[in-house]
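User: Last request for today: this protein with zinc ion, please.
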Amino acid sequence: MKHLNISLRFLIYFTLLVFACKRVETNYSKQTVVCPIGMNLYQRQALPVLERKLLISGLVNIQNYCPDIIVDLKYSSEDNFIGINLYGNLKNAYLQKEACEKLCHAQNILNNYSEYLSLIVFDAARPVSVQQKMWDMVEVPEQIKHWYVANPQKGSIHNYGMAVDVSIINKNGELLDMGTDFDYFGELAYPGKEYYFFERGKLDSIQVQNRELLYRIMSEAGFYVSKTEWWHYNAASLNYAKSKYKIIK
Ligand SMILES: [Zn+2]
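Assistant: Here's the final one, the structure of the complex with zinc ion:
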């Protein structure tokens, strides 16, 4: 009887899996499995631990809503300022639904400007436990550390799924030149100082134009740029995020 119950359970899980998901073709010959947030237990258990945490927090997978957006999570690799993989095998980027809708709007604005370009997401929702590791490891003086990494005691808008780190990539897979890499710590990455550095020969006209393009489409979609990082955009204030959502632990 016990064996029968287990077999029945697997049959139910398998049936739910087949009917709960559908495949979506994207422009990049990639297939994304789209499932409702209340996906069955069998499927949820197959996901990375961190991804399950994000789903349980009510966040949405950006590429389920905007398949044209490219995702390359820098903290799922060693290609970041800390040099270690903080996200494990997480490959999908998550946001609160209202932030995701704004990002899709930004992608549509970019598509209208040029079908040759796409947004690329380097980071989106980020648990506060990862934020703490970043805070501990960033190597700048304590008094200016908060310019580069939000203090985990106060919380970052990333920790509420309302911020995204983003750039622009062309269909050949080449990033537009923004004058610095993602996660560059220094004034050269400050939005608003482009002309200051252009006049001093530290940024060229293409780099300034590329940053302006990113700023224009993200602002038009309702995002606010960081004061120190050209790639960081908030979908709302920290107070708004705290009032509406729980922090992701
Ligand atoms: Zn950021």
